[in-house]
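Quick log. Single chain, no ligands specified.
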Amino acid sequence: MKNIFLLILSISKIFGQSLNPQLPDFSEAKPIEGMKLVWQDEFNENGKPNPKFWKSEKGFVRNEELQWYQEENANCQNGVLLIEGKRVQIPNPNYEEGNASWRKNRKEINFTSASIQTKGLQEWQFGTFIIRAKIDTTLGSWPAIWTLGNAGEWPSNGEIDLMEFYRVKSEPTILANVAYGTGKQYVAKWDDSKTNLKHFTDKNKDWVKQFHIWRMDWTPESINLYLDDELLNSTSLSETINPDGKNPFLQPHFLLLNLAIGGQNGGEPKSETKLIKYEVDYVRVYQKQ
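-> predicted structure:
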């Protein structure tokens, strides 16, 4: 079976296209009129993500999520970046009995996963971002494609969520969000969009098995977020002003790809869930010439 799959991948690469939407797409990046492809990662070389582009987060990082981030869970293989969330039972090296911090009061790590980012390596201000990815929609899965501004404390630095998936009131949901600062530390103002997964699966019964295109068109005037060319959220940058008068979306941002598990939004995975997968086929960034 493995040899058959590799043969299919080879044929698709020769003919410059994927044979079906469930497979990686090896075709060349399409030109966009009036724009230049300024950066891309096709994830076609087997091994670790390119260290010139990506760095890995480590440990328990945010949102009281279940996973311990480690670089071992992100690998390029068969034409995709594969991030795997794995159920484990290993000691938390930072455990301290009686410590109030959620990062330190857990005796064990029950899931590992990966989060990679371009911070300090690749950053952009404005452009069209195109990411082809396949997400796992099982309970507990919380994959994301997002950016953060390179200056300032969150959320005053600005956050753009091209894609998040998790459950909202127990319903599987696709989110497209923009967040910026308020007068309170670590409290964001959100311009968010929530679309029930059923909206997509009713039209395509194989939706969860397929790769999809998430796109951001970011200009000095607006941020528009799309899924398979359907506009999910549009934000005017005339409204995204922090209390200090700065606009966090008029500065360079870096990109993050991660698979969180559980936490404040992901939901508790079922006991039989041992593995959650998140596949990214490519990331392409275009800017005006």
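The two ends are 45 Å apart (CA to CA).
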